[in-house]
Amino acid sequence: MSPDRASRLAWWSTRALLPLAALGAGAVLLGRARFDRASLEPFFDPELGTFPLRRSWFFENVLHLGGKYAVVCGALVLVVLALAWWRDARRAAHARRFAYLVACFAATAAIAGAWKEFAGQITPWNTLAFGGREAWPGGGPGATFMEVLGSPGAHAAAGFAWISLYFVGASLGTRHRAAWLAPGVGLGLLFALGQHVRGAHPPSHELWSLAIAWAVACGFAALFRRLGWLAWSEELSDATEERADRSLPWLIGSSVALGGVAFFAIDLVTERLERDFSGVHRAFQLIELSVMTLGLGTAAWLLAERFAALRLRASQRVDEERGRRFQILGRMAASVAHEVRNPLQTLRLIADEQRLDLPELRVHPLVPEFEACLERIDRAVDLVYRLARPEGGDPDRADLATAAREAMVALSRITAGRVSFAWDAEPPPAPVSSSKAALRIVIDNLLRNAAEASPAGGSVRLQLEPRDGEWRLEIRNRGRLGLRPDGAAGERGLGLGVPISRQIAGSAGGSIEIAEERGEVVCTLRWPRLAEEAA
Asked: What pLDDT does 120 receive?
């Protein structure tokens, strides 16, 4: 025997023959035993001569009639979708799965109905034991083979038909394919319970219904697989094991919904059983209350956790996308800065050569403005270039006070005495974890902003002190936040200094705050102290 044939034989033996043999044997044994009839007795009222729940609005109108129409409408919807998507390349696989489900549903219902008619099934409420005129089927020595064998319940079979979802789950490569049995099994048991308490079917009938549904599901699965319309593997691949099952929430939701309907049905059943079994209804109500309380609480908690996880995931995606864009922007900025720096130096050389050749240009009134513009462009290019391509070889330790002194000296030369810089008190050594280049960029930017915002003859005051495990450098100057002395927008507009400084300080665990206090602009730079120095 070839390995392929042996594999098919093993599949049919384990997936179809053994389960069907077990279900069939159970149905025959229940049909011949006292249990089949005894299980109906608690729901029969001898005084009324009928099953009180037979005309119950829930069991007759909701479960029996409403359930029948619901599954038929569901099958019709699948038919429409299968026909609409059959030739759609993207949805053809789903169309064939829908066709498989419809074929299983139609065949299961047809076989169950034909079996009932051929066997001459007698409904329990029509038997002598339950107020009817017929003998209990299979009870006498002259019983026919079909009476001994029993018959299925058509209504339960319409519910059990949806266990064919198992092979749909298998075709999707899900690792939770056993969970795909839950909707069909749950719906079939719910229909079976409704028909049982109404006196329509004993338990043996429902076992035959389940056996028919499973036999049809296996048979059509093999047929569709042979036609190439439904493909699946019995072994899970590594990719399948790692892939999250997107259908699991749908399966859990539908199963829990059916469980909720079942709880309501069992509540009505135990209320009826309270006459013969005192306390059973109260006991079930306690169980129902506990399950509903814990279930709703757990569901609410899981939903809250799920929403929180979704928000966190969305935030992480935004951060990742922002980081990716910053990386791209940084590379582009470095390239642009490099391209701008070369012609800028050429402009400086040309201007110097022109002043040598034309002495009158040395005293031209626009020369200072020209130099200021070149200085401003050079500063912007330097900021972008040094941020995108930080200097290598800088130590991880720098002194905040030393960096501030050096920046004050450099800016004093640039401002040519228009603004003075001074300490409120001599600062202590302030070692921090940072490169000297990055620290100088931050302090240079803050002091430049303060100098530009100060009026002529004004002063910029600095104060440095340790506080709460960090260094706080305060820079104060007269002026208004966001405006220069001439009323033009300052760094709060399109300037690069503050945003770049904030980014550098934030990456080191620090921050920059700018506020107005009594006619002064106060810029506070916070930078974490070194761990050993703070201790």
From this structure: 80
pTM: predicted TM-score of the whole model, two decimal places: 0.61
Q: In 3D, which of 348, 315, 358, 330 has the Cα closest to residue 500?
A: 330
Q: The dihedral of CA 210, 213, 216, 219: what is its sign?
A: negative
The total of structural domains in the chain comes to: 3
**What pLDDT score was predicted for residue 27?**
87
Q: What is the pLDDT of residue 518?
A: 79
Query: What does the alpha-carbon distance between residue 422 and residue 462 come to, in Å, rounded to a whole number?
Result: 6
Task: State the Cα–Cα distance between residues 36 and 277, nearest whole angstrom.
Answer: 19
Contact between 129 and 182 under an 8 Å Cβ cutoff? The reply is: no
Measured distance CA(244)–CA(166) in Å, rounded: 17
Whether the Cβ atoms of residue 497 and residue 383 lie closer than 8 Å to each other: yes
Which residues of the chain, if any, have pLDDT below 70?
1-6, 138-148, 235-246, 330, 338, 341, 362-363, 372, 376, 379-380, 382-396, 480-496, 531-535
- The percentage of the chain sitting over the pLDDT mark of 90, rounded to a whole number, equals 27
523: left (phi over 0), alpha (psi -120 to 50) or beta: beta
Q: Which two tokens stand for residue 534?
A: 């703070």
Element (H, E) at 515: strand 511-517
Q: What is the CA radius of gyration of the chain?
A: 42
181, 88: one domain: yes
Residue 144 DSSP code:
-
* Best CA proximity match to 159, nearest among 200, 198, 120, 191: 191
Domain final residue, candidates 357, 374, 389: 389
Same domain, 370 and 505: no
Q: Which helix (H) or strand (E) holds 516?
A: strand 511-517
Q: Considering the chain, what is the average pLDDT of its residues? A: 82
